[in-house]
What does this fold into?
Amino acid sequence: MSSTTAQAAVGLLNRERTVAGIGFSRWMVPPAALCVHLCIGQAYAFSVFNLPMTRLIGIAQSAPDDWKLTDLGWIFSIAIFVLGASAALLGRWVEEGGPRRAMFTAGLCWAGGFLLSAVGVYVHNIWLIYLGYGVLGGFGLGIGYISPVSTLIRWFPDRPGMATGMAIMGFGGGAFIASPLSVWLMRMFSTPTHIGVAETFIVLGLIYLCFMMVGAAIVRLPPPGWLPPGYEPPVEPQKLITTRNVFVYQALKTPQFWLIWLVLCLNVTAGIGVLGQASAMSQEMFPARITAAAAAGFVGLLSLANMAGRFLWSSLSDVIGRKSTYFVFFTLGAILYAVVPITGRIGSIALFVLGYAIILSMYGGGFATIPAYLRDLFGTMQVGAIHGRLLTAWSTAGILGPVLVNYLREYRIAQGVPKAEAYSTTMHVMAGLLVIGFIANLLVRPVDPKYYYKAEEKPHA
Amino acid sequence: MPEPRNPASSGNPGSAPPDPLAGVKLAFAWLFVGIPAVWGIWQVFVKSLALFK
It folds into this structure.
């Protein structure tokens, strides 16, 4: 390829070349975002590879040189850590370069992570998988997660919650596709003397590359100052919805940013802890009534509730407001965490499932409503970069939630509490966390005007 | 300060004459992401029915 052709190709990724032309429908942008989020949502399904990767040498059972589950657990942990770090560090780069460059880069990183991991599996070197899926894939996760957020908010100023909820719902649903697809591919590529993990990684990497490139190709930015027909933006600020903008570094100095950070962290901590324990908890609370297969169904149902909640709660937040939506999460959540253990004592599986389905819907809703909350407080200008910084709350909760749940459960069992009862204390602690979240949300006030962006600060548009 | 509305120089996708292929493109875009998403949701839904057996 000549240098001129290469420059022209790179030019296609520029922010200026991404601006929509005449007749472009804003409803093309959610599928573009979903092309990315449905792919990177695979991260939640990575565990389907864990057991097959412990038998790559021994095939029928683990050989002494095979990897241990503890070695493999680091792959996902590294990816999630790099997700948070890259979203925080590269948020401004994503914002300034526009969604196409970010989606393109995310696609290369995500697919490249799979391909490098395939090499790692082939030569049986776990460090290549840490580097591939963990680091390179983690960058794809972080960049991909935040890449469409501010674009969607710009296209849907009338319904920002619904728009970002649609994309973030895709992240929740990506595992639904990846999990059965990965199992099917591994079955296709496996023989009596070989487990087809490397081939599955290659096929998944190529599929994800195609999907994410389609997303990058069809995404568009609205022209400067564009507004949906018939939409009149408020001229004066309304309670928590500003008409001004805050620069990302200024946003970090505001108490509002850290209160929202706490709101997200506590909401996720409570939900993620339950999600990790759902299978064991359902079987131990209803012994002999919920089997292992039924427990897998319970986990699936919670995942559906998590995904649906991302769209429904974030859409509702456009009507009742962001602060009120989080008040619902923290109030209803705290009540449900306190009450659900009783369903085990009275033996009601239906109420148990219903209670946790609502809790998990609010866990998903918490993720999906955050970008619109940030838009309300800090304006649209750098919302993607600010959202990227905020995702460190997710990384923190990803460690805090499971550790808290596991530690409390072990502690209670060591005290002689029956397994079925051991979850009650955990759930009450989760309810307590949500009460703290309620207070943090209560303290959120409009941003002090001294933090508003002034033209002389010269950020990008 | 509120940003300017719909400057003529940059075009306005929302109020422009409709592209004759816009509907087709939109349908393809949604089907492209919708079909795998619905397939995945159906897989999980079928699996979750085990809870009620």
User: Anything to note?
Assistant: Residues 1-11 of chain B have pLDDT under 50 and may be disordered. The two ends of chain B are 59 Å apart (CA to CA). Chain B is about 50% helix and 0% strand.
